[in-house]
Design brief:
This protein is of the alpha/beta class. The chain has 13 helices and six strands. The chain has a six-stranded parallel beta sheet. The chain is elongated. It starts with a helix and ends in a 21-residue tail after the last strand. About 35% of the residues are buried.
């Protein structure tokens, strides 16, 4: 996610007094779009770390109340809390499910419209140092008003990880399981695992490591057996990634996003159809 990291690095400066004196406005935030399991939530958490700010997670669905006026009041309270704790990163997860799907279908209620209107007005007019990171699975389901300039600084597409990124993901999850020092865990082995997991998301790779560990545990018996590379390879053969089960939807989304979003990785967005036998063609 090096391109996204660079972008956030530039935005750090907008929270300083020097930037204020220079005439820069504080950064508004970003919208992260991508298929489930590709690391949008991780990006949101990493953003707070990069900016060295506290992270608040907003549950938009919890804003809706049973009585008239509750939803609007809860929305205003959320905004007041975020501004009172500023500077802060406000993470709005799956914004398309709470502020988009009904709009796209033409079924938005008056309450939803008022909640959306309150948030949009706040994003447009607020000068408080609140950096919003919103995540969504489907950009085409969002209210078009969310995409108006001034609401977000940029829209990023979080694609499936490339080969080098998959190797890094395997390394991270093996380290989390305290298996990074096993003799077979070498750069070559990680590269082989990355090649075998073409088309897998970060979440699917994490699950493969978990299932591989389960395989090793059940087959150890009375023998002193540790996690082996073949256990993870076997786990990969047992599962079908999202790039296979939703291949057409993912390809259509990439094509639609070709000129609308920035990629988070320098491995890039590729929109040409994959070659025979490939789920996704990557660079590098």
């Amino acid at each position: 996610f090096n391109l996204y990291k660079s972008f956030v690095g530039w935005k750090v400066a907008t929270f300083t007094k020097v930037a204020r004196d220079f005439g820069l406005r504080r950064s508004k935030g970003v919208l992260l779009l991508g298929a489930p399991g590709t690391g949008k939530s991780l990006c949101a958490k990493a953003t707070a770390t990069a900016l060295k700010l506290p992270l608040l997670r907003a549950d938009i669905g919890a804003l809706y109340g049973s009585f008239v006026g509750d939803s609007e009041r809860n929305t205003r309270e959320m905004i007041k809390m975020a501004e009172a704790m500023s500077p802060v990163v406000l993470w709005i997860d799956e914004i398309d499910k709470t502020m988009g799907s009904a709009t796209a279908a033409g079924l938005t209620s008056d309450v939803t419209q008022r909640v959306i209107g309150t948030i949009l007005t706040w994003r447009q007019e607020s000068t408080a140092p609140v950096f919003v990171v919103a995540t969504a699975n489907r950009l085409d389901k969002l209210d078009p008003a969310l995409m108006r300039p001034g609401r977000f600084d940029a829209v990023f597409w979080v694609d499936l990880p490339g080969k080098e990124e998959r190797a890094d993901i395997f390394k991270i999850h093996l380290r989390k399981k305290r298996r990074e020092k096993l003799p077979w865990v070498t750069a070559k082995a990680l590269t082989e695992l990355a090649a075998r997991s073409d088309g897998y998301s970060g979440a699917e790779i994490a699950e493969a490591v978990e299932e591989g560990l389960l395989e090793a545990f059940h087959r150890s018996g009375s023998v002193d057996r540790e996690l082996a590379m073949r256990d993870i390879m076997l786990a990969l053969t047992r599962s079908k990634p999202l790039s296979v089960t939703a291949e057409k939807e993912l390809a259509a989304m990439r094509e639609w996003l070709a000129d609308k979003c920035r990629p988070v990785s320098s491995e890039g967005l590729l929109f040409e159809p994959p070659a025979a036998g490939e789920r996704r063609r990557t660079v590098g």
